Amino acid sequence: MACGSESGGKEPSSHHGTVSLGDADQTMKPAFFEIFGEMWNVQARLGQGVSASVYRVSSGRASSAAVKEFQVDAQGGDYGYHKERSVLEDIQGHKNIVTLYGVFTNHNCLGASTRCLLLELLDVSVSELLVRASNQGHSMWVIQHCARDVLEALSFLHREGYVHADLKPRNVLWSADDECFKLIDFGLSYKEGHQDVKYIQTDGYRAPEAELQNSLAQAGLEGDAGCTVAIDLWSLGIILLEMYSGIKLKETVRSQEWKDNSSAIIDHIFASKIVVGPAIPVYHLRDLIKSMLHHDPNKRSTAEKALCSPFFSIPFAPHIEDLVMLPTPVLRLLNVIDDNHLHNEEEYEDIVEDMKAECQKYGAVVSLLIPKENPGKGQVFVEYASAGDSKEAQRLLTGRTFDGKFVVATFYPLSAYKRGYLYQTVQ
């Protein structure tokens, strides 16, 4: 049990979503951390690795965050903690990189001390999105959103001279409040040309040159000057190919066929998927992915160049499944209101008041909109003060009946709602 701590840093803002690093054993987690002189209850262990565990913590309904607690390493030092802290402190301020709120030392009841990072709490990971999509693959809207956000993060990171070195679906998470994907886990990151980590990247997302370097290190041999930022582009190329195909590609990228002609395999993946709609965006995505998956790192696209791909100039609408999976502060209620109620002003005003009263049970409502005409005719759009409130409302309203109808509750992009842009979502 955590008994106390010494802390430093700034307080987190009040609302953040749910970091998801995969299922982990819930035993032996601390009951609380004392952070900045305040008791934070541990709600769940979100992930556990060799060197650290990540917990969701809360100091009451208004404050949630993530704590990454590092184990003392075999040499009795805090190298992993100092490494990740120094990288995060150096790259703070980009919207597509997880926010570090502060650092503290936790003292447990056994007299041991552990170093901790207090981090922004995020939502669903791309790893979980891949599981939910099974073999269907994701919509072009989600793929484009994820690709752009990660490339923006990499472009910034690479300009600062850093290589992430462990890009994988589990390290790309959705932020409900900021409505974008963010990079996490900088434990293997290093300054280009100053690689201080022997074994880098995760199997299945490892660039060929990193594979070679890891093999040399295992044999006790020295490689060349180290891997460049190009390894991050390789990892992202594999992630996007998995998001498009809905298939895990670990065995594929290990195969001799892939090593001999990866371009033909990418062509086959794209040709074998039935796509409804125009083919040109699909070709742009295929070419973007190919530009990241050259076996020669010198021929691989840079993050900045990839952001100029024509794939990013095409507007896509989200599928309804996308709006169920990716939380935002705006909730959209379907199957609630009959058309005939919309044209009787008195009935319409009553419905607006009833809906507002119902939705305020779950959190502070900033605005509520029920369009009388298409697009969005008869749908209810509810903007909450935070994504935490909209998530609670979505959970409790889904499947409820309103005027004898079963309610369908999805999230809705805050940016589109603010602009008054109501998507005709693809079913």
From TrEMBL:
Q: List the GO terms this entry assigns under cellular component, sorted alphabetically.
A: neuronal ribonucleoprotein granule; nucleus
Question: What's the protein here called?
Answer: Serine/threonine-protein kinase Kist
Family matches, as CDD domains: RRM_UHMK1 (cd12465), STKc_KIS (cd14020)
- Give me the reactions it catalyses: L-threonyl-[protein] + ATP = O-phospho-L-threonyl-[protein] + ADP + H(+); L-seryl-[protein] + ATP = O-phospho-L-seryl-[protein] + ADP + H(+)
RRM domain segment(s): 329-407
Q: Which GO terms describe its molecular function?
A: ATP binding; protein serine/threonine kinase activity; ribonucleoprotein complex binding; RNA binding
Q: What is its main location?
A: nucleus
